[in-house]
Amino acid sequence: MNMTRRDVIKASAAAAALSLAGLPATVKAADDGIRYGRSQCRFCGTGCTVLAGVRNGRIVAVKGDADSPINFGRVCMKGYALPHILYGKDRLTRPMIRQADGSLKAVSWDEALDYVADRFVSLIKEHGVDSVAWYGSGQNTTQEAFAANKLFKGIIGTANVEGNPRLCMASAVGGYLNTFGADEPAGGYDDFEDCDCFFIIGSNMAENHPMLFRRVIDRKSAYKDKVRVIVADPRYTPSARYADLHLKFRPGYDMHLLNAMAHVIVTEGMVDEEHLAYCTFRKGLKTKGDFIDFAAFKQFLADYAPEKVADLVGVPAEDIRTAARWFGKNGVASMSIWCMGINQRTKGVHLNCQLHNLHLLTGKIGKPGSDSLSLTGQPNACGGTREQGGLTHLLPAHRAVANPKHRAEMAEIWGVKVEWLPTKPTGPAVNMFHRLAAGKVKAIWINTTNPGQSLPNLTPMRKAMRNAFTVVSDVYPTRTTELASVILPSAMWVEKEGVMGQTDRRSQFIPKLVEPPGEAKPDFWQIKEIARRIAKKLGRKTRYRVLDPMTGKVKEVREVYGLGFETEEEAWNEYRLATRGQDVDLWGATYAKLKAHSGGVTWPCPSTDFDNRGSAKRYISKSYAAKQFGFFKRPYKTGYVTLYDQHLEEKGLPGPINYYGHHPFHKGSEGKAIVRVLPAGLSYEMPDAAYPFVLNTGRVIEHWHSGTMTMRVPMLKQMNPAAYVEISPEDANRLGIANGGRVKLVSRRGEIVLPAWVTDRARPGMVFVPWFDETKLINLLTIDDPKSWSGAGEPDYKICAIKIAKA
Amino acid sequence: MAIAGAVVIPVNDAAAAELAARLAKLPGLEVQGIGPRGIAVVLEAPQTKDLERLSEEVLAWEEVADFQLGYCNWE
Ligand code: SF4
Questions:
Q1: Closest Cα to atom 5 of ligand 1
Q2: At A581, phi and psi to the nearest 5?
Q3: Which one of A4, A715, A718 would you mutate to disrupt binding with B, by most B Cβ within 10 Å of its Cβ?
Q4: Domains with residue ranges and CATH for chain A
Q5: Which atom of ligand 1 is nearest to the CA of A77?
């Protein structure tokens, strides 16, 4: 029988649908002439594994990878839109330099690269190394981020290296460091299928991490009476729709809520005494306050009895008690899951620590189905920024700029002189842009991110970028490229290769499957070319070497101007070497392994053994894992992960539980986790008589971040074409605002007019505005004041005071 | 042409057959079978926006808990 192309595609669609429904394939997926390559979704931090289909040099189809331990063959609507993000009509395809009259002139790559390198070097020579800066992204591949870090910190010698993950997950890093002495979670995605109580706070997972939320729903559907879902959110979000209990708390009062839950846990016998032996109690954050004992902690919590704080929190005391009992009940596996609602807050680090506290007190960590899991927003914020060290105070693999031993180690690995490296951090992202505005930083290279739309208090930030020498590498025109002095057209997603790392310590490989359009080039290539030029002009030579990926033996050494590696694989191998022996050990994540295993490798993975895909659990020994799980390895479709911490084993650290505590914040706690004793506080700018509303900003299911990609996908644009303000019926009534009517929002920094969406989703007194719409810049209103940042330098995008009126 | 393979998850498993019958009446949608993890369907529409309209319509039904895509071709 002759099959038409339509029949062939329909057969493929039917085969995929039957498999998802759990049915045997009655239709054979026909050979549709499409070549599929395994990749990772380009959007959120879930990191779904997808199969991207190529036909005639174009990506024409996407399917979820059924072998993936992340998404099991499913993908959300953004994932399915992936082919379209490559083919927007206005892709940037030629380098451009802004002329004196403000126009942009297309130039050759050589001209653009020479121009950028000349300007950077002349500024360095005249004003010092801190006059130039890099602002990268959680969407750079790890190799790009590693290359940029090496160029700026290793060759130029400035700590002016920041990235947009500072705006979304720095507080989570602060929380993990303050509590465990090491960044990133103890467990991961595999815990979803063993969890009995999901406590989701400050995250609208249903829209922003849909495939992980799908796993919550699957678990709930399979064990309807056993599994509880608690959603704590001031908005009635799509995630809250599925909750057994929705704690619709007053915005800003979640510190009170979490201390109240801790109070119930300690007073109603839900404390795990055995696990307390692995914890200490300390007042405040970092190394500031005294260590206290459990009795004193219990005394501290007396002020947070649910009945005492219920009015402040805006949730009935009984609901707080119910949430704490569901979460803390003995024998129940509990996960807390959070995202920007916790991180992008003045009290972001405090809130993160409070969530960990609930786990430490109840011992719900290091066990099947129990974990405190901070979700990440971007596909490589963990890999490229947190692990690789893409922030001002960091060096690769959880090393610190301020630590002389760490500098010496990195100088050796990078093949540069240790005296070239900066010795102290400069400042976090927003501070870097403040210094750009003040003229101290004079040139900045912005790569794969859109700060002209995403930074808080945009008016002065945009002016700073316009006035400085601003180089922007991107794939489409954005609100940042319009401010640029030089625009470099980039390749994206499967137009280039790289590795990306997600929420649960996972790294995955993205292959190059198609050519970029026009003259667009991978960012890795751009960084390499500019590094070569800058290094030569500065007279700084690096060591070029090729490592044997299995043994780490050096195959070739010569002195070069440039980064000292040529290909993405060579850069990855140098990075692997940097991680070797560190807690973030990716030495075992060879290219061969990353390419072979769907869902990649989860660190710590010191072993290059092909089937060893790393550790699903941290901080626990093999014997403890065997006791808890009944086994200590979990097989995947290919290879396995261990349920114990391979770093613990490699280093010979004693178990059964060992929170390494090697961070300076942990001095004095020696291998124990720290329960941080934190009085409840509020965000920097709470509503008052003049500005009585809370403005909350965030994302929606159809769009991703500033909409650069998703607004070019006709389907997604049509589904949600423009920003709006979500307002409660009570507030709308009182102000005479009708659904669709125009509303003026005014903060102390800026104003905007938006159409109203009158909905029960909103809590009275609070409005929500999504930030994907480049024609309506909600960040003109948000706060950049350093006093509003969390202890980790992250600005508060969730609470600022505004007034609203019918426009 | 836009073709997708998807699974429709019923709110109530017991009413899956009823839901499948309702789905089968939609132009452009073919029911492939009812499985333990939902109803397998294939959708076909002239353009992606029609496909999206069709999936949105299904998702809005009271008896539908979720609509998940498993394959999409945009040729
Ligand atoms: S859940 Fe996130 S990673 Fe997965 S397909 Fe959707 S946007 Fe992509």
A1: A79
A2: 85, -10
A3: A715
A4: 5-85 (3.30.200.210), 96-164+392-496+520-564 (3.40.50.740), 174-374 (3.40.228.10), 584-617+620-658 (no CATH), 693-782 (2.40.40.20)
A5: 6
Does the distance separating the beta carbons of B6 and A217 come in below 8 Å? no
Q: How far is Cα A377 from Cα A207, in angstroms, rounded to an integer?
A: 12
**A81: distance to nearest CA of chain B, Å?**
9
Looking at the complex, does the CB of residue B65 fall below 8 Å from at least one CB of chain A? yes
Pocket test for ligand 1, best of A78, A80, A713 (most atoms within 8 A of CB): A78
CB A347 within 8 A of CB A287: no
Size of interface A-B (CB pairs under 8 A): 124
Q: What is the mean pLDDT of residues A109-113?
A: 98
Identify whether the C-beta of residue A806 lies closer than 8 Å to the C-beta of residue A736. yes
H or E segment to which residue B3 belongs: strand B2-10
Record the tokens describing residue A164, joined without a space: 């947009």
- How far is ligand 1, taken at its centre, from the CA of residue A82, in Å? 10
The whole-number pLDDT of residue A12 equals: 80
> Is A143:A571 a contact under the CB 8 Å cutoff?
yes
pLDDT at residue A529 tops 60: yes
Assigned CATH for B2-74 = 3.30.70.920
Q: Which residues of A touch B35 (CB under 8 A)?
A: 18, 21-23
Taking only the tens place, the pLDDT of each residue in A543-590 is 998 888 888 888 888 999 999 999 999 999 999 999 999 999 999 999
Rounded to whole angstroms, the Cα distance separating B26 from B8 reads 13
Q: Are A130 and A438 in contact (CB under 8 A)?
A: no
> What is the rounded CA–CA span in Å between residue A155 and residue A138?
22
pLDDT at A495: 98
Q: What is the mean pLDDT of chain A?
A: 95
pLDDT of A388 above 90: yes
Chain A residue whose CA is closest to B4: A13
Cα–Cα dist A492/A524, whole Å = 11
How near does any CA of chain B get to the CA of A210, in Å?
10
- Which residue ranges make up each domain of chain B? 2-74
Instruction: Enumerate residues lining ligand 1, CB below 6 A.
Output: A 41, 43-44, 46-48, 71, 75-76, 78-79, 209-211
Task: Tell me whether B74 touches chain A (CB under 8 Å).
Answer: yes
CA angle, corner A758, sides to A755 and A764, nearest 5?
115
Residue from A40, A76, A702, A703 whose mutation best tests the ligand 1 pocket (most atoms within 8 A of CB): A76
Question: Cα(A83) to centroid of ligand 1, in Å?
Answer: 14
Class of residue A24 by CB neighbours under 10 A (exposed 0-12, middle 13-18, buried 19+): exposed
Answer whether A480's CB lies under 8 Å from A453's CB: yes
Tokens of A290: 């005294």
- Active-site positions of A read 78, 168-169, 340, 377-378
DSSP conformational letter for A689? S
Record: contact A61-B6, CB cut-off 8 A: no
Give the Cβ contact number of residue A596 at 10 Å.
16
SS (HEC) of A64-106: ECCCCCCCCCCECHHHHCHHHHHCCCCCCCCCEEECCCCCEEE
What SS3 state is found at A52?
Answer: strand
A525: Cβ–Cβ under 8 A, 6 or more apart, which residues? none
- Does pLDDT of A2 surpass 90? no
Dihedral sign (CA A377, A792, A461, A130): negative
Q: To the nearest whole angstrom, how far is the Cα of A387 from the nearest Cα of chain B?
A: 32
Q: Which of B1, B65, B72 shows the shortest C-beta gap to A6?
A: B1
Q: Which residue has the tokens 């842009």?
A: A433
Strand partners, B66: B9
Rg of chain A over Cα atoms, rounded to whole angstroms, equals: 25
